[in-house]
Amino acid sequence: MMDYLPGPHKKIFADCEKLQAYIREEVTSHKQTLDPENPRDYIDCFLIKLAKVAAARSEDRMEHGGKELMELQEMYFLVLSP
């Protein structure tokens, strides 16, 4: 229904998609260059913690965790945006 209504909400949806794409790229980049002994930022810390939890549970949850991290970052940017 929102697709048929004119207004600024269309720009908001487009901006959210761009933000999700950026976060997805950052998480992918961090996964590829992750050094558990030298975390660079909270993304690395989150991925390291996620790997420890996955190992403890004996299941791979990296994909699910990536989605949670994206949601966390989206909330972070929404809170800080004017």
From TrEMBL:
Coiled-coil residues: none
Entry superkingdom: Eukaryota
UniProt keyword annotation of Metal-binding present: yes
Keyword Metal-binding (UniProt): yes
One of the Pfam families matching this protein, by short name: p450
Keyword annotations of the record: Iron, Metal-binding
InterPro entries assigned: Cyt_P450 (IPR001128), Cyt_P450_sf (IPR036396), Cytochrome_P450_fam2 (IPR050182)
Family the entry assigns: Belongs to the cytochrome P450 family.
Protein's UniProt name: Uncharacterized protein
Species assigned in the record: Phrynosoma platyrhinos (Desert horned lizard)
